[in-house]
Structures are given as C-alpha cells and as structure tokens.
Design a protein that fits this description.
Strand order of the largest sheet of chain B: 1-2-3
Low-confidence stretches of chain B: none
Shape of chain B: globular
Structural class of chain A: alpha+beta
Largest sheet of chain B: 3 strands, antiparallel
Oligomer: heterodimer
Largest interface: A-B, 47 and 56 residues
Helix content of chain A: 25-40%
Shape of chain A: elongated
Helix content of chain B: 55-70%
Radius of gyration of chain B: 21 Å
Strand content of chain B: under 5%
Number of helices of chain B: 14
Number of strands of chain A: 23
Largest sheet of chain A: 7 strands, mixed
Number of helices of chain A: 23
Structural class of chain B: mainly alpha
CATH topology of one domain in chain A: Beta-lactamase
CATH superfamily of one domain in chain A: DD-peptidase/beta-lactamase superfamily
Low-confidence stretches of chain A: 1-10, 609-646
Distance between the termini of chain A: 81 Å
Chain lengths: ~650, ~375
C-alpha cells in the first residue's frame, strides 16, 4: 500500500465514524424522549392521579434488644413492651388542635409533645413522629376508644428493659433511654430515629451495636382514608444478640446485700482468667426509671444522696488504697533487695525523718516487726522506713509493672486510671521537685496514690497468680437469637510483672497471716473451710490531725478497704472491697469480702450438703473449675416479633 | 508564551453549554434539597461553589497540551490499578460498598478517576497501532486485558455502575477506531454461548432472580423497584407543563430517594414537565454532538481519540442516568453530568471538559 493513501484512510475512516456515532447518539436521545413522551403525555393523567393519591405509611417495628444473661445463662435483663404515641404528618392538617385534644385526653404535657413534633421537621411526611413515650395502659385504652376522632394518630410498641433482679448490677448494665438530639447527629447513630431507645451507659452503651438488632418496618400504600392498599416493602426486625456476662447473678446479689446501706464498691475476679464475677457499686439505682421521665422526687433523691447512687464506684471511684498498697511496697523492697523476710525493725510507734515524726496508726508501736508481721499488723513504721530506702520511683515502677495508673480496658465508658505518683509525674503536674518526705505516705498507700476498685481487684489477682495481669472482662460470649454462640471471649493477658515467684510467696505468706494469724487485722475475713489471704486498708479522706479520732461528719470518715484471694494454696478468686466513709477496713470491708468469698465457694458446691470433714482438711476446697460452669442454659429468644409488628 | 491562537480559538460553545446545564442543575438542586434540614451551607450554594471551582480546574486542564497525557498514560494506569487494589484492601466502607481511599488529608474514589484514565490509556494504545481495516481479534486482546483488570476490580467493590461505564467508554473508543466484521462475529460467537452457559448451568436460582430484579426492577416492588415506581410517578405526573418550580409533590414530600443526586432528573421532570425536559435534553444533545464535532475537526489521531472518549463518558452517564430514573435501565448509582449534586462528579466532568477544550483550542496546530 502506498504511504499517502494509507494516511488518508487512517484519518478519514474514524472521522467518518464520528458522523455515525452522532447518529447513534441522536437515536438514543430520541428513544429517551419517546419514553418521556409516553410517561409525561400519554400516561400523564394516570401518574398525576397516582401522585395525588400517593399516601405512604411507614410502620417502624423496633427490634427487640438482646438479653443480658449471667455466666450460668440466667436472664438478668430482658424486654417488655412500652407504648409510644406517634403522629403521621401527612394525615394531619391542624397539628396544634390535635395536640390540644391529646393533651387534655391523656393528661400529657403539651409543650413536650410540641417540642418533639418540631424536631421532626425535614423528615418524610409519611414517617410517624413520636410525640410521647412510655404510655400507661390507661392512656393506650383511651386512644383506642377515640381512634375515629384522632386521625393520623398511631400507637407503636417499642421494647424497653425489664430487670429480673430489680436494681442488681445496675451500674454494670447501665440503662437505656430515648436517644438524645446530640446522639442523633453522630455517625454511629445514623440509622436511629427520634424516639428510639439506646444504651446510655455501662454494658448497654458499650455493646449497643450487638444488643440493638435491626429495626424493621413496613412501607404501606394507603388510601385517603388510611386503609392499607398494599404492602410495598417489608423488612422484619431482627432481634439483637444477647450477651452472656462473666458475672454470677447469685454472687452479685449476695455481694450487694452484704453492703446493706453502706456506700462503696466491690469487685470479684477470677484469678486465672480476669473474668469479673461480681461488680458492685453501692448504693445502686433503678435503671428502669430512665426509659421514661424520671419522677422529680426520685431524681432529686438520687442527686442529693451523699452516697452518690448514680456513680459507678467500681470503675470510676478513685480511692487512696491505704495499707492494701503495702503489698506493692513490700514486693518493691524484696525485688530491690532492700529487705528480705528476715529483715526486722523495732517500731516505737513513729518514724522520724528530717526532724518530722511520721506516726504509726498504733500509738505505742508494734515492737519488733519483720515482713510477715508488718503485713499482719499493718505496721506503718516498717513501710515508712522501706519507702525512704526505696524512694518513690522504685515504688512507682513496681506499681506500673502491675498496670496501675492506667486503664485496664475493661470496655466500659468512663474507666478511671487512678494515680501512681513519681518524681517525673510531680515535675510534670506541678513543676516541682519531689520531696523525700512525700515518699513515706506513698509507701502506705496515702498521699497522691489513687486506685479504683477494679484496679485493686486486678492487683490482688496478679499477686494471687504470681505475676500474670489479665484484662478484667465482663462478657463471656455473644449469643445470637437462635442461641448460637457468635463469639466467645478468651482470657487476655496484658502482661506479666516479672517479679520473682519467691518474692510473691513471701508477701502472700504475710497476707495469709493477716487473715489467719492471731492478731491479724483481717480476721473478719476468715472462713472455716477455705484458707483466705488478704490485706486490710484504711484510707484517710482528710487530714484532721488529732481531731481524727473524734466524731466527724460522714464525708470526713475514713474509707475501709479489704483485698483478698482464696484458696490460699491454689487461688481462684480475688476480691476487692471499698466501703466509703465506713471506718477501718478490717472492721467494715473484711466482713463483706468474707460474705462474697463464702457465697462463691458455697455456690460451687453441688446442691447436696457436703460433709464438713471432707473440706476441713487444708487441701483445696471444693472444685476444679472455679466458676467456669459450661451449662449453657438455652435462652429462648423472642421470636414473636412478627406478631408485635401491628 | 501562550500562543495567541489559543485564545482566539477558545471554544465558547463548549463552555457555554456546560455552564447552561450546570446552572439549571444548581436551580434544581435548590428545589430538590428545599425540604432538607441541615447545618452549614445549603446544597445549592455548595453546588455553585463546586461549579466555580470545576470551571477553574477545566481551564487549567485546557491550558495544558493534551499530548502530554500520552506520555504519562501508562504511569497513570499503573498507579490507578494500585489504588484500586488498595481500596479493596484498606478502603473505607460506606453504604455497603468500599469505594473510598483515605489519603490522610482527603479521601478519593479511584474508580471515578479510572474513567478518565481508561480514556487516556486507550487513546495512547490506539494511537500507536496503525491498523487500517479495522481492529482484528488479535489486536483487541491487549486492550481487552487493559480493560478487564480494572473493570473486575471495580466490580468487586462492588460498583457495577462505574464498571459498566468504564467498559462502555472503552468500547466506544474501539468502535471509533473500527472493528473488522470478523472481530464482531468472533466476539459474539464467544460471548453469547458464555453468557448462556453461565445462566443455564452455573447460576443458582436466587442469583438468577437477583439478575432479573436488576434488569427489571418492577419485578419486585420492594427496594429499588419501589424507588423506580416513585420516580416514574414523579416524571409522569409532571405532564406537559410541569407542576412548577419547588411545587413537585413527589419531591417535596420526599417520596424520591437520593433526590438531589442520582434522582435529580426526576425532580426536574416533575416540576418542569415535558417542555423543561425537552430543553434539557437538547442541551445535553448539543453538548455531546459538539464533542463529536471537536473529534471530527481534530486532525490529530490522539486528539480525536481523546475527544471521542471524553464525549462517550458524558454521553453514557447521561443516557444511563436518565434511562434509570424513567425505568428503562437498571438502577445503578450513576450521576447526571453537571446536574446531580456532588463535588467529585462535578470535578471529574469538568476535567473531561478541560480535555475537550484543550483539543478544541489546538485544532489549528495540525
């Protein structure tokens, strides 16, 4: 082929093809136009009629929330129906007069209804707007009777929580309440509508995604009188997943009862897994109140109570650990080689440093004291001296090896870190140098030191298992509505302390003496059949010098603390108890710990009575699987959602 | 520096058509989003800003000589393949599909860019292969490979709409170059049995149902079928004269889904009627025919290929979007150029127009 010719063909052919392409374009546009002609001119009347009669209704059906079960499958939190009043915007011409009628018929707050109505602006006109929640049975009946005179008004069922054990573990569960305006703006709640219930706190909030399930609904086409012509779309709600928690509902209630009217917190943990077996914050509150409007008097009562019932003390209460901290100071001393089990001091009742006398709690002193007796009698002088020799940074380093002063990541909102002071910390926080005199209070768990009950329990568990830090966790597994396990949570090891087993053994011997030796401060925690080891603590809330012994205001009284693990030889459970403003730890906290341990070991025994002789021997009492019952009680999911849809 | 002829040859017809469509679009976005309650700037203001910014971008692109695109084309292509793979691995999920890639400062949608890059890549390939009597099967193998890989990656996101568009654009360009009859026949002989085999043997009944629902949404009156019914009611009830601006009941009562983006045309059709639609369609038709005219006038093979590719991109978006909202085509999320609300699509169409402008301005050079 000749070159020139080739060039011409090459360029002209595609160029001609643009004309062909143009034809194709025109033809396809013409087809679009034909279709538009058909829709907009030939069938226009038909579609216009359809658009005028186009009345859609959406009947949302809220999904049932997953249940909360205890470790043995006992249902602790489930659902019950609650009724909401909704108005369908497109059905109502004069909203104000309708609200007037509803307010007078049902004795509802008109302002509140109006406020909810205003919030709905900009939503689809066929989507019902919730104007009142948590209606009483009477109110529902009144609406049913007046149905004909209240066009555009709907009653819808939404599940709210039912608590099998009333206020038990309220702080752990948290509560559900109506979604707030702020939450509605968040991305995480993009699928929620005003009037929906969401978890606000505790497990309910942390596991909202699992528990909530998927709301369903029906898209209906209705005629001008509201009669359903056909169902355009229907999606069934799916029940949320249930959570099987690590706590034992029986142990939990025993622990709560042990507190009585006292304020405080207790955490019981499985020493070898980090599973939280009981999680108490006392006093507790009624979580079911939050689903509606809380009666003003109860709300006021909660707010004015000095014991702060709404605060989750087990997780967010930060207390000076007092003498329970001596366990760490002792370990720091042993590891640093500053002391051994034979080191003794003579205690005159105070320790002098830089011309200042640091007093022991026992004015006459404890006499000659070694490691074991120092823990047993909780001798302050011994630890003042040890603290001075160690310096604050070595104590802080030991505490950090136990993951103190940071979040353990239990997975609930508002977990507090506590505080482990050090020279670096003080410089950063106050811009000041650390004074050696400040170390002495730290050595006995006072001064700047702060710990939460969950941290106390974790520390105790780590001492008991001799060095492994487990992440305390609250959920054993996620169970789907059919009872199938979706996910099972394994123990998570956060780290190890690196402290020698020998050091642990020496300190544990001391903790054994606290409870079991004559003159031990923790005698109140002794059990007849299981060897318990522990440590008392009494932490000062305010420094009042000599006035401390006198009668004082409630807020100024000492916190009583007790940490314990058992059985001594093969630990299974660790317990930490804080009694706010209760006085001495041995007197107020140790008995509570004893009750928790007592019921823990009782619950493990088979129902038949065990003969005393059998367990009186000092070998490990009752059981191998410390609370790891595997009987998965079949939990029956609510499958009647379809019926509930109406 | 800048050739004076570039200024005198500036294509005012092109830019005028684009501005006309965009302004009608802004007007329509105002109506479609009138019922939305939101904080921040209203949608129509944002759309106006995107339009202004887009025009600037298109001027910058136009000022560059389009021939430099050829040099970089395979680099662009390779880079985008990597991005598409990255999307599947570390992409951001949103609305059930993974399309976005977070680059720290901003997020991008690589599949959107792929439309333009496939145009450049194909333009380079066909420019360097001087076939005279149309493409043979053998000559189609490599471009087919270049096409299939990104198309599959986009399908996987899953983004069927964009994948289809990429394929349609590429085939339009190949058609412009021309096939041999033998190629078309072989292609049909391979494809038809393959599809039949997949349908009859390989696919399970539920998959078949899904495909049927997709092709004809009215089969199921749920989900997308419902949207199409509402959209058709909107368009049809507009009638000859329309219901009037901001007076469409379907849109103002929010029966339409995505009414300021993918279903913007339905809102327009309801409010402006057949008359409005006719004018809008004529504007689009003029724009596309003008694009083909730019290709025809261009004496450079590369320029012609690029112009056809870009025009095909505008054309297929328009046809598929309008076809979708009036129930001719399956529901795929494809924006209407310059008309649907959205920054990403506005910018990418403006880049496309910039390329057209660049070709049009330089027609005297060859």
């Amino acid at each position: 082929m000749i070159k020139g010719q080739r060039y011409v063909r090459e360029m002209s052919q595609p160029k001609q093809r643009t004309i062909l392409l143009g034809f194709i374009v025109v033809v396809l546009f013409f087809l679009l136009l034909l279709r538009l002609w058909y829709l907009q001119i030939i069938r226009s009347e038909e579609y216009r009629a359809m658009s005028e009669n186009n009345r859609l209704r959406f009947l949302p059906v809220a999904a049932l929330r997953g249940a909360l079960l205890d470790r043995n499958g006992t249902v602790m939190v489930n659902n019950r129906p609650s009724f909401s009043l909704s108005i369908i915007p497109q059905e109502v011409k004069d909203v104000d007069s309708l609200l007037d009628r509803l307010a007078s018929l049902l004795k509802l707050d008109r302002l509140e209804m109006k406020e909810r109505w205003e919030k709905s602006k900009g939503r689809a006109r066929y989507y019902p707007v919730v104007v009142a929640i948590n209606l009483s049975q009477d109110q529902v009946e009144i609406i049913e009777e007046n149905r004909v005179r209240l066009p555009g008004v709907e009653i819808s069922m939404k599940p709210i929580r039912e608590y099998a054990f009333d206020n038990s573990a309220a702080h752990l569960f948290g509560y559900i309440a109506e979604i707030s305006d702020k939450e509605l703006e968040l991305k995480a709640y993009a699928d929620y509508n005003p009037g929906d219930y969401v978890g606000k706190n505790g497990i309910e909030k942390a596991w909202e995604q699992e528990l909530h399930g998927n709301d369903g609904g029906r898209q209906l086409e209705v005629d001008s009188r509201g009669r359903v012509l056909r169902v355009l779309a229907e999606s069934r709600p799916t029940v949320g997943n249930s959570l099987m928690l690590t706590i034992d509902s029986r142990l939990q209630r025993e622990a709560e009862q042990a507190f009585g009217a006292q304020a405080g917190a207790a955490v019981a943990m499985n020493v070898n897994t980090g599973e939280v077996l009981a999680f108490v914050s006392s006093p507790t509150f009624d979580p079911s109140l939050f689903a509606g409007r809380i009666p003003a008097d109860i709300w006021k009562e909660y707010l004015e109570d000095k014991r702060r019932p709404l605060e989750n003390k087990a997780l967010a209460g930060q207390y000076p650990p007092g003498s329970t901290f001596k366990v760490l100071t002792a370990l720091a001393g042993l590891e640093a080689g500053v002391i051994d089990e034979h080191t003794t001091i003579s205690d005159p009742g105070y320790y002098e440093m830089g011309g200042h006398k640091f007093r022991d709690w026992k004015s006459g002193g404890h006499g000659v004291v070694n490691l074991r007796t120092s823990l047993k009698e909780s001798c302050d002088t011994y630890y003042y001296r040890l603290g001075e020799k160690l310096g604050v940074d070595r104590i802080a380093a030991m505490a950090e090896r136990f993951w103190l002063g940071r979040e353990l990541g239990i997975g609930l909102q508002n977990e507090k870190k506590g505080l482990i002071p050090s020279t670096a910390w003080k410089l950063k926080r106050f811009g000041k140098k650390w004074f050696p005199g400040e170390t002495l209070p730290v050595a006995i768990g006072q001064g700047y030191v702060l710990m939460t009950p969950i941290q106390l329990a974790s520390m105790t568990a780590t001492v008991a298992n001799e060095g492994t830090i487990y992440r305390p966790h609250l959920v054993r597994k996620i169970v789907d509505p059919d009872g199938k396990t979706v996910k099972e949570f394994q123990p998570e090891v956060l780290g190890t302390t690196g402290v020698s087993v020998a050091s642990f053994k020496k300190v544990k011997q001391g903790m054994y003496a606290v409870v079991n030796d004559p003159g031990g401060t923790g005698a109140n925690a002794r059990l007849w059949d299981v060897k318990v080891a522990g440590k008392t603590g009494t932490s000062q809330v305010v420094k009042l010098g000599e006035d401390r012994k006198k009668a004082r205001k409630y807020e100024h009284m000492d916190h009583g603390l007790f940490i314990a693990f058992a059985p001594f030889d093969k630990p299974e459970i660790a317990v930490a108890v804080v009694v706010e403003h209760g006085g001495g730890g041995g007197a107020v906290a140790a008995p509570i710990a004893a009750k928790i341990l007592r019921s823990f070991f009782d619950l493990q025994k088979p129902p038949a009575k065990v003969k005393p002789e059998k367990t009186e021997q000092d070998d490990e009492p009752a059981s191998d699987n410390s609370g790891t019952h595997t009987e998965t009680q079949k939990h029956v999911p609510q499958r009647q959602q379809e019926e509930d849809a109406e | 520096m800048i050739d004076r002829r570039l200024v005198t040859n500036f294509d005012w017809t092109l830019i005028g058509l684009v501005c006309a469509i965009s302004l009608v679009g802004v007007l329509n976005v105002y109506s479609a989003s009138a019922v939305y309650k939101l904080g921040g700037a209203p949608y129509y203001i944002k759309q106006l800003n995107w339009m202004g910014f887009g025009l600037l971008v298109s001027l910058v692109v136009a000022s560059l000589d389009y021939r430099i695109l050829e040099d970089f084309s395979y680099w662009f292509y390779g880079f985008l393949l990597i991005l598409l793979i990255a999307v599947l691995v570390v992409g951001k999920r949103s609305l059930g599909a993974t399309r976005w890639l977070n680059l720290g400062l901003f997020t991008i949608q690589p599949s959107e860019l792929m439309k333009i890059v496939i145009i450049i890549t194909f333009a380079r390939y066909f420019n360097n292969h001087h076939e005279t009597d149309g493409l043979t099967i053998k000559e189609m193998l490599l471009p087919l490979g270049l096409l299939v890989v990104p198309a599959m990656l986009i399908m996987k996101q899953p983004d069927l709409g964009t994948a289809t568009l990429v394929v349609l654009i590429a085939f339009s360009m190949a058609f412009y170059i021309g096939f041999r009859w033998s190629t078309i026949i072989t292609f049909a002989l391979v494809t038809v049995p393959l599809v039949w085999f997949a349908w009859a043997v390989y696919m399970k009944p539920y998959q078949k149902n899904r495909v049927l629902d997709f092709i004809n949404p009215e089969r199921s009156r749920l989900g997308s079928g419902y949207h199409i019914i509402q959209s058709k009611i909107a368009v049809g009830s507009g009638g000859f004269w329309g219901k009037g601006y901001v007076k469409g009941t379907q849109s103002q009562l929010r029966f339409l889904p995505e009414q300021h983006t993918d279903f913007a045309f339905s809102v327009f059709a309801e409010e402006w009627g057949f008359v409005g639609v006719l004018i809008l369609l004529v504007l689009y038709l003029c724009l596309i025919l003008w694009g083909l005219n730019i290709a025809r006038r261009c004496n450079d093979r590369l320029g012609g290929l690029l112009a056809v590719g870009v025009t095909a991109m505008l054309f297929w978006h328009t046809i598929i979007n309008i076809g979708m909202v009036i129930g001719l085509f399956p529901v795929v999320g494809v924006p209407l150029p310059f008309f649907s609300y959205g920054g990403t699509s506005m910018i990418s169409f403006m880049v496309a127009v910039g390329i057209l402008q660049s070709i049009s301005m330089r027609r005297f050079m060859f």
